[in-house]
Amino acid sequence: MEIIEITEQNIDKEHICCAIGKDKENENRAFTKKAWMKKNFRDGLVFRRLDDRGKVFIEYLPIEKAWKPLIGANYLIINCL
To answer: What does the pLDDT read at residue 59?
Structure first.
């Protein structure tokens, strides 16, 4: 098994494996999520997933750039597991 880091360079060809499915109904949600991720990579967003069947991933970024109303310094906020 390998850990894949999703980046601006590979996000268009990689599956983000969160709760968003790959079917037509969820296509717009996946597009919106990937657009949000592309914007937030510049702010330190990290998205890593296991290259295996199933939903094994982590998404985090610096607390200073969190989209939630959090205050802190030198911490990471986990957006999703």
So the answer is: 94
Residues 4-58 pLDDT 10s: 999 999 999 988 876 666 677 777 888 888 999 999 999 999 999 998 877 788 9
Residue 72's identity, in one-letter code, is G
Measured CA angle at 58 (ends 76, 15), to 5 deg: 135
Residue 11 has which token pair?
Answer: 């996000």
**Cα angle vertex 15, ends 32, 77, to 5°?**
65
Q: Which of 54, 59, 52 is nearest to 78 (CA)?
A: 59
pTM: predicted TM-score of the whole model, two decimal places: 0.82
Q: Which of 63, 65, 67 is nearest to 75 (CA)?
A: 63
Continuous H helices in 1-81:
27-41
